[in-house]
Structures are given as structure tokens and as C-alpha cells.
Automatic annotation (TrEMBL):
The keyword Oxidoreductase applies. It comes from Arabidopsis thaliana x Arabidopsis arenosa. Its cofactor is Fe cation. It holds the Pfam family MIOX. It comes from the Eukaryota. It catalyses: myo-inositol + O2 = D-glucuronate + H2O + H(+). InterPro entries: Inositol_oxygenase. Substrate binds at R57, D115, E116, S117, K157, G174, D175, H252, S253. This is Inositol oxygenase. The keyword Magnesium does not apply. Its EC number is 1.13.99.1. Belongs to the myo-inositol oxygenase family. Its main location: cytoplasm. GO terms for cellular component: cytoplasm.
């Protein structure tokens, strides 16, 4: 699929919240971001390939240096993400004593971050946040909580920055998975779990491990990273986002669940309800990644209004 890059020209006569231009096969939102449009439904149409010309989430094409770096990332992640490591990180970062700042200030901080685990993206993270949010906003205009969830879902990647401890990439990004139970074969590059000490611990290497069937994902420890950190930040700072929003934030990288259907034995009824929204979100999170940039200043007022609605002015991080 070919995506045409358009240079957006601001026009004060056009309401910020409305689509400013439509064509037969694409549509341009108020931030200048081109959204592929389905010919059948007039909704978001997931493209077949990323901007590099590869299939999305292609972890088997090892020809490029970038792909090899992604595989090395997962080798390190699978070895070091243990049950004890996750408990240690949750205890340390659960203190929320690194910084005080607003949600938008954190969005701007994220300009300094590039996710090395992602084979589909090499733009600053704030562009991915806005591309995802704008695409969802177009198709779900009345679900403003979902727009904001899309904007903030990756803010936990600030853990990569020196101000937050400068954690290694394997402790911040990449697919997530439960610890304290068997590592399901649905996990990307599963072979590298052989180096994880938990795999030889009978307490952790069974299907349920330290959990019970149907216990609910809120009671399951996930591999540590930006998902769980942002979930803790939002929850402990008293966000009024619905539970589905928090579910999306904490589990949006849990691809073994929402892509492969693994670990469903740990879910409860609330998880199954929230998973429906995560499936909606995931299409936009994955397929809206593009070289077409959003005009940040153009869309900023709308997202500031949502931040003020669902979060305090300053948060502890």
C-alpha cells in the first residue's frame, strides 16, 4: 500500500475536531495525519506493510541490522525478566518519587525516546501516540476516554531516560508476559527463555504457577516495563479513566494474550469484557504507525482538554 505524504496547511475556518479533507482512498485528520480508509466501511483500514516494506510485527526476517537488534533485545528480555526482578521493580517504581509533571509534559519528554524493540517504528514516540489517538478519534468520536488512553499508553517509556533511572530497553519495552508461571510458546522468540532461571523453578514453571485459574489479570505479575509503570502512575494518581482504559494501558503489549489467545485461563469476566476494547485499540496502536507526522500544535488543545478531564494537573511519576 502506498501512503501519500501531505503537507498540512492550517485553515482557521475549519473546526479543529473535524476532518478537513477526504479522498477516495485516504482521509486527513485535523493534525495532518493521513488515515487509510476502508472502501467497504469508511473506517480505519489496516495496511499490509509497515513503512519499511515488511509485514507488521515481522520478527523472523533477520536480514537487516534492525531485525537482528530486535532479536537480541528479546534474548536479553527473556533471560532477565524473572518473578523476583518484577517484584523489585514494582516496589522501587511504585514509590512514584522520580518526578512531578503533567501528562503533556511527559508527552514532550517522550520526544527523546526511540523504541529499539519495535520493528515497525523509528519516529519519536510522541508521533506514534498522536497517530494512534487521531486514528481512533476519527472512528470513535464519542469515546474521548479512548482517545486519551491512546495518547498516554506509551508514556511509561520515560523509564529509558536518565531522570527515571535509565533502565535498559529490555526492562522497558517489547511484548509483555506473565511471570510466576510457565512461559507460553506464543511468546516471541520463546527459545531464549531457556536462559531464564524461573524456567527451572517448580514454583514458577507450571501452567498456573503461583496463580489460580480465573484469578483475574489484576492479580498477575507481568514482565516489568512501560505498560505496568504507566498503569501504576495512572492508578495511584487517581485517574478517572474507566477500567477498560487502565486495562489497555497495562496490557497493550501483552501480545501473547490479545494476538495469540494464550494465558486466557488466568482471566476473569471483567478481563474478558475489557479485552474487547483492547482488541479495538490494538488495531490502531499497531497499524497507524506511519512516516506521516501529526501537527502537534494543531491537536494539542483537544488533548489538553481530555487530560484536564481525567487527570490532576500534576502527577507523581
Amino acid at each position: 500500500m502506498t501512503i501519500l505524504v501531505e503537507h498540512f496547511v492550517s485553515d482557521s475556518r475549519v473546526d479543529e475536531k473535524k476532518v478537513i479533507e477526504e479522498r477516495d482512498d485516504e482521509l486527513v485528520l485535523d493534525g495532518g495525519f493521513v488515515v487509510p480508509k476502508s472502501k467497504e466501511t469508511d473506517a480505519f483500514d489496516a495496511p499490509d506493510m509497515n513503512f519499511l516494506g515488511h509485514s507488521f510485527r515481522d520478527y523472523e526476517n533477520g536480514e537487516s541490522e534492525r531485525q537482528q537488534g530486535v532479536e537480541e533485545f528479546y534474548r536479553m528480555q527473556h533471560i532477565h525478566q524473572t518473578y523476583d526482578f518484577v517484584k523489585k521493580m514494582r516496589k522501587e517504581y511504585g514509590k512514584l518519587n522520580k518526578m512531578e509533571m503533567s501528562i503533556w509534559e511527559c508527552c514532550e519528554l517522550l520526544n527523546n525516546v526511540v523504541d529499539e524493540s519495535d520493528p515497525d517504528l523509528d519516529e519519536p514516540q510522541i508521533q506514534h501516540l498522536l497517530q494512534t489517538a487521531e486514528a481512533i478519534r476519527r472512528d470513535y468520536p464519542d469515546e474521548d476516554w479512548l482517545h486519551l488512553t491512546a495518547l498516554i499508553h506509551d508514556l511509561g517509556k520515560v523509564l529509558l531516560l536518565p531522570e527515571f533511572g535509565g533502565l535498559p530497553q529490555w526492562a522497558v519495552v517489547g511484548d509483555t508476559f506473565p511471570v510466576g508461571c510457565n512461559f507460553d510458546s506464543a511468546n516471541i522468540h520463546h527459545k531464549y527463555f531457556k536462559g531464564n532461571p524461573d524456567i527451572n523453578n517448580p514454583k514458577y514453571n507450571t501452567k498456573n504457577g503461583v496463580y489460580s485459574e480465573g484469578c483475574g489479570l489484576d492479580n498477575v505479575l507481568m514482565s516489568w516495563g512501560h505498560d505496568d509503570y504507566m498503569y501504576l502512575v495512572a492508578k495511584e494518581n487517581g485517574t478517572t479513566l474507566p477500567h477498560a482504559g487502565l486495562f489497555i494501558i497495562r496490557y497493550h503489549s501483552f501480545y501473547p494474550l490479545h494476538k495469540a489467545g494464550a494465558y486466557t485461563h488466568l482471566m476473569n469476566d471483567e478481563d474478558r469484557d475489557d479485552l474487547k476494547w483492547l482488541h479495538v485499540f490494538n488495531k490502531y496502536d499497531l497499524y497507524s504507525k506511519s512516516k506521516v507526522l501529526v501537527d502537534v500544535e494543531q491537536v494539542k488543545p483537544y488533548y489538553i482538554s481530555l487530560i484536564n478531564k481525567y487527570f490532576p494537573a500534576k502527577l507523581k511519576w
